[in-house]
């Protein structure tokens, strides 16, 4: 029975949805980046490419259809990939030289200054996460393709702004260490609280998963063999958000601490070098004075 059910659902499991908007969008991100850096491949380019690849996989792989039709947990995984993997990879893949040139343009610098205000970036990202999990709005995204596209775009844009604000690659624009750590800590807290709420909700909040239209004959496998009810699936998705999601934001704190340590080490190194240079200069002057005194006596 299990084999037959798996076989009957294999059409969906092996189905990739190459939505034109996703294919064109990912292609445009790669083409624009390649043109901007002069088609040179380096570590930054690899990070950017991995970010785009993550977007492509999350929005075209079987995960997409499973999340849209059957499993809240699959949809949650899709969103976590956009928020916690794709977005920071895109930010870390931005070339510093190109950014500095772009920020010399007045209107670009003004827009960046507004969007990267920590309070705005935090509330925009975490607020977007919470708003889209309002049951009516969430179900609307599942049943309306255009709304679903808007949902994914707002998740990705708000996440890029969030990670840019917390991990700016330009030193003079970076937040101080303690505020940056608090920024990521409260993001982890906000994500975890929502995840706990979803995990401990007494019933399934999303009718689409409660009564899915089983066009791909997946229900015998999910409900029968796996005994995965909509409520249990929602609990899994909630756990993914508060555990994996919380840890994802905590990695931001780790990056901030590593940056602080490196800056502190570099500062200490420069101070020690300056002291050594001053000491050597003083010793040289003393030796010169000694030799001059000895010469005069002679």
In short:
By secondary structure, the protein is mainly alpha-helical. Helix content is 81%, strand content 0%.
Overview of the molecule:
The protein has 298 residues and is mostly helical. It has one domain. Helix content is 81%, strand content 0%. It contains 14 helices and no strands. Helix 5 packs parallel to helix 14 and helix 8 packs parallel to helix 11. It is elongated and about 105 Å long. The N terminus is likely disordered.
Query: What is the string of helix and strand elements?
Result: HHHHHHHHHHHHHH
Largest sheet properties: none
Uncertain spans: 1-8
Tally of separate domains: 1
Helix content: over 70%
Mean of residue pLDDT values: 85
Shape: elongated
- Would you tell me the structural class of the helices and strands? mainly alpha
Rg (CA only) = 27 Å
Q: How many helices in DSSP terms?
A: 14
Determine the strand fraction and express it as a percent band.
under 5%
- The end-to-end span amounts to 109 Å
Number of strands: 0
Helix/strand layout:
Blueprint: H1 2-13, H2 20-36, H3 43-60, H4 62-69, H5 72-92, H6 96-102, H7 106-115, H8 118-131, H9 135-143, H10 145-166, H11 177-199, H12 207-210, H13 219-225, H14 230-297
Identify the notable features of this structure and list them briefly.
298 residues; mainly alpha; elongated; disordered N terminus
């Amino acid at each position: 029975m299990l084999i037959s059910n798996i076989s009957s659902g294999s059409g969906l499991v092996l189905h990739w949805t190459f939505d034109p908007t996703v294919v064109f969008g990912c292609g445009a991100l790669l083409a624009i980046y390649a043109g901007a850096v002069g088609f040179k491949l380096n570590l930054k380019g690899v990070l950017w490419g991995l970010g785009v690849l993550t977007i492509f996989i999350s929005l075209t792989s079987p995960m997409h259809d499973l999340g849209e039709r059957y499993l809240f947990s699959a949809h949650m995984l899709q969103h976590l990939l956009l928020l916690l993997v794709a977005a920071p990879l895109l930010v870390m893949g931005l070339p510093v030289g190109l950014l500095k040139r772009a920020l010399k343009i007045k209107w670009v610098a003004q827009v960046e200054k507004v969007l990267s205000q920590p309070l705005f970036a935090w509330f925009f990202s975490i607020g977007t996460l919470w708003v889209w999990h309002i049951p009516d709005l969430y179900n609307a995204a599942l049943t309306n393709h255009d709304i679903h596209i808007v949902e994914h775009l707002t998740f990705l844009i708000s996440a890029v702004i969030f990670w840019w604000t917390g991990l700016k690659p330009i030193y003079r624009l970076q937040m101080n260490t303690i505020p940056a750590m608090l920024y990521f800590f409260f993001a982890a807290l906000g994500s975890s609280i929502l995840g706990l709420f979803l995990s401990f909700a007494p019933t399934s909040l999303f009718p689409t998963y409660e009564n899915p239209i089983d066009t791909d004959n997946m229900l015998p496998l999910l409900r029968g063999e796996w005994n995965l009810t909509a409520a249990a699936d929602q609990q899994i998705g909630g756990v993914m958000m508060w555990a994996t999601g919380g840890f994802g934001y905590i990695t931001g704190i780790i990056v901030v601490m590593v940056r602080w340590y490196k800056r502190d080490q570099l500062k200490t190194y420069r101070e020690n070098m300056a002291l050594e240079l001053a000491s050597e200069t003083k010793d040289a002057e003393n030796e010169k004075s000694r030799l001059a005194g000895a010469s005069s006596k002679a």
